């Protein structure tokens, strides 16, 4: 079993509705073909509702419709923006969140709101998500404007405040700005990139040891780089946190090379991590976090 914790898709868009570099999300049919080619059994489909750096929006209703057409393969998320409703730190999102949960959404994501991570609007929204009981996948940004994601600083102080404030909310951590902190030597000039070389255990390790509500989303170049840049460290990291890491690809383009797929196949065939750790990371953790009931 292989469950992908992070993919993107949308229905067909006009050929001119693309990113400025010409790329675009796969349609559901293309996504299924890509999953088949890499042996991915199920995937969690992210929505896109916040305007920052988007070329198109993918609301919860579209994700639900897509997943209803492929119920054995695709798992729906809902995605909301904390500026909805009253655009106030007193807005009540619980009714909306409960509705989407009842419609089948298993999580919130990808949460890319380009406000400070601990901004009052975000904190209000996180409180409602915690109360409803859905996990949330976030993307961190290093600045406001010209990018997407929740703004933090080097060292991730805002993320830590959020983790402290909402201990019952499961956060799935994603993006370069998070995973670059796998190593203590991360710097101001490279924390939004993909640093290479040996790892000195850094803030990611510290935060995961301290906060059991923090789960690692290994998707995209960022998550894959964190576990592969220093192989021996990566194996030890996956063993230590094998109950709180989730395999993922971040499929978001057509075509897209998924280097993490053969990497995980090699981990298994060469016994580089334990069989139990491999099984947890590739599907059991996603099953538990999303409440799929497969185990």
Give the CATH superfamily. Metal-dependent hydrolases
Percent range for helical residues? 25-40%
Task: Specify the CATH class.
Answer: Alpha Beta
Number of helical segments? Answer: 11
In terms of structural class, how would the helical and strand content be classed?
Answer: alpha/beta
Name the average pLDDT: 98
What attributes characterize this protein structure?
295 residues; alpha/beta; TIM Barrel; 6-stranded parallel sheet; 3-stranded parallel sheet; 11 helices; globular
What's the helix and strand layout?
Layout: E1 3-8, H1 28-37, E2 42-46, H2 60-69, E3 74-76, H3 94-103, E4 108-111, H4 120-132, E5 136-141, E6 150-151, H5 157-165, E7 171-174, H6 176-179, H7 203-210, E8 214-217, H8 220-228, H9 231-240, E9 245-246, H10 260-269, H11 275-290
Parallel strand pairs: 1-2, 2-3, 4-5, 5-6, 5-7, 7-8, 8-9
Describe the structure.
The chain is an alpha/beta fold and 295 residues long. The chain has one domain: TIM Barrel. Helices cover 37% and strands 12% of the residues. It is built from 11 helices and 9 strands. The protein has helices at 28-37, 60-69, 94-103, 120-132, 157-165, 176-179, 203-210, 220-228, 231-240, 260-269, 275-290, and strands spanning 3-8, 42-46, 74-76, 108-111, 136-141, 150-151, 171-174, 214-217, 245-246. Strands 4, 5, 6, 7, 8 and 9 form a 6-stranded parallel beta sheet that branches. Strands 1-2-3 form a 3-stranded parallel beta sheet. Strand 2, helix 2 and strand 3 form a beta-alpha-beta unit. It is globular. The mean pLDDT is 98.
């Amino acid at each position: 079993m292989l469950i992908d914790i992070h993919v993107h898709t949308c229905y067909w868009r006009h050929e001119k509705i693309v990113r400025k570099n010409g790329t675009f999300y796969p349609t559901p049919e293309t996504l299924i073909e890509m999953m088949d080619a890499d042996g991915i059994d199920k995937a969690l489909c992210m929505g896109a509702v916040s305007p920052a750096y988007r070329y198109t929006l993918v609301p919860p209703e579209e994700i639900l419709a897509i997943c209803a057409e492929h119920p054995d393969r695709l798992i729906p998320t809902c995605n909301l923006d904390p500026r909805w409703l009253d655009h106030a730190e007193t807005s009540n999102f619980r009714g909306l969140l409960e509705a989407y949960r009842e419609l089948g959404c298993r999580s919130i994501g990808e949460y890319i709101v380009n406000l400070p991570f601990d901004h009052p609007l975000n904190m209000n929204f996180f409180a409602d998500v915690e109360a409803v009981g859905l996990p949330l996948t976030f993307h961190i940004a290093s600045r406001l404007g010209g990018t997407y994601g929740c703004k933090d600083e080097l060292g991730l102080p805002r993320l830590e405040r959020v983790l402290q404030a909402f201990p019952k909310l499961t956060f799935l951590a994603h993006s370069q700005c998070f995973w670059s902190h796998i190593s203590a030597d991360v710097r101001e000039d490279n924390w939004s990139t993909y640093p290479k070389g040996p790892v000195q255990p850094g803030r990611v390790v510290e935060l995961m040891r301290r906060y059991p509500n923090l789960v690692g989303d290994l998707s995209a170049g960022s998550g894959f780089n964190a576990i592969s840049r220093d192989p021996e460290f990566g194996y030890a990291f996956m063993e230590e946190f094998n109950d709180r890491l989730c395999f993922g690809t971040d499929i978001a383009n057509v075509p897209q090379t998924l280097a993490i797929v053969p990497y995980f196949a090699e981990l298994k065939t060469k016994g580089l991590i334990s069989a139990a750790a491999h099984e947890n990371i590739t599907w059991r953790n996603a099953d538990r976090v999303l409440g799929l009931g497969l185990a």
